[in-house]
Amino acid sequence: MNSLHFMGTGLYIPPKVVTNDDLSKIVDTSDEWIYPRTGIKRRHINEGLTNSEMAARACKQALENSHVNPDELCCLIMATFSPDTFSPANACTVLHMLDLPEHILSFDINGACAGFLMALTVARGILAQCPGKKALVVASEFCSDFTDWTDRSTCVLFGDGAAAAVISLDNFSPFYFTGGTGKGDEAIQVKASPRAGDDFHVIRMTGSKVFRFAVTVLQQAITELLGRAGLTADDVDHIICHQANFRIIKHVYEKMGIDPAKFYINIEEYGNTSGASSAIALAEMNEKGLLKRGDKIMMICFGAGLVYEGILFEW
Ligand code: UT7
Fold first, then answer.
1. φ, ψ for residue 141, nearest 5 deg
2. Is the pTM of the predicted complex or chain greater than 0.90?
3. Which residues of the chain have pLDDT under 50?
4. Most CB atoms closer than 10 Å: which of 17, 23, 252, 285?
C-alpha cells in the first residue's frame, strides 16, 4: 500500500522543432538512417530558456491542474542530468522562480534517464513522513546544451523538455518497485570537469552497449514487477518505457509477447529527452485523457550508470 496519487500534471515542450532533414544539413546523416534505426522524426530544442525556467513552467501548470495550495507542499524534487548550476540545486531555483513557501525542501536527483522514477520513489518516502502533504516532482532536461553538434552518433538522438506532477500518498492501492545498477558506467558519460579528460560537458555514448543493457533490464523489470504484484501483462493497462529507441521497446514486446498497444510511444515527436522522457509521456497521456482512475500503469526507465528502475501503480 502507500502508493502515489497523481493530483495534476504539467508539461513544457519547447516550441522549436528540429527535423531529421534539418540535422542532415549540419552532420552526415539522413532521415533514412535515423527513423528506421530509432523511431525519431523530430525533436524539440530549447532556445532562450534555462533548464530551471523550463522546469518552472511545467511545475506551474502541474500546480494549476492539481488545484493544490503551495502551502500544502512538503518537497520539490527535480530530476535532471543537465542542470544550469551544480549548486544550488535547480529545484531551489525553481522554488524561488515560482515564489513557493520556504518550508518546502528542494533538491535535485541525477538519475539520468531514470531520474523521474527515482524522484517519485524518493518523494513517496518523504510523503510518508509528512501526513496530508503533497510533493511537486519535475523532470527537466536541456540535453541540447550538452550535445556535441558535430557528433552524428549522439546529436540526432536527444531533445529537450520538462514535465511535472503534484503527488500525494494513496493509502488504498499498492505500489511496486524494482531497480538496480549494471556494469558499464563508461557507456554513457557527460564529464563535468576538464580535469576528467577531453570531451567534458558533452554527451558521449556507446549506443550498442546501452541497447543490450536496455533490452535485458526492461524484460527483467517487467517480469519482476508482474511477479511481485501477482499480475500478468494482460492485467496492466499502460506501459511507459524510457523513450530512447523505438526498436528497444519493439524488441521487448515481441520477445515477451505483450500487446504492443499497451506501450505508449512518443519518441517520434520528442526524441530522447533523458530523465524527462517518462514524465513527458505520463503528462501527455493525462492531458489527452488516456488515463482512467484505477488503471494499472507500469513505468520502466534505464540510462547512464548503467541504472534502471521500474514502478507499478494504479492511476
Ligand atoms: O537515454 C540513454 C539511453 N540510450 C539508449 O538507450 C541508446 C541505445 N542505443 C541505440 O539506440 C542505438 O545503439 C543507436 C541508435 C544509438 C545507434 O544505432 P546502431 O544500430 O547501434 O548503430 P551503430 O552505433 O552501431 O552505428 C552503425 C553505423 C556506423 O557506421 P559504420 O561504422 O558501420 O560505418 C556509424 O558511424 O552507423 C553510423 N552512424 C550514423 N550514420 C548516419 C551513427 N550515427 C549515424 C547517423 N547517421 N546519425
1. -135, 130
2. yes
3. none
4. 252
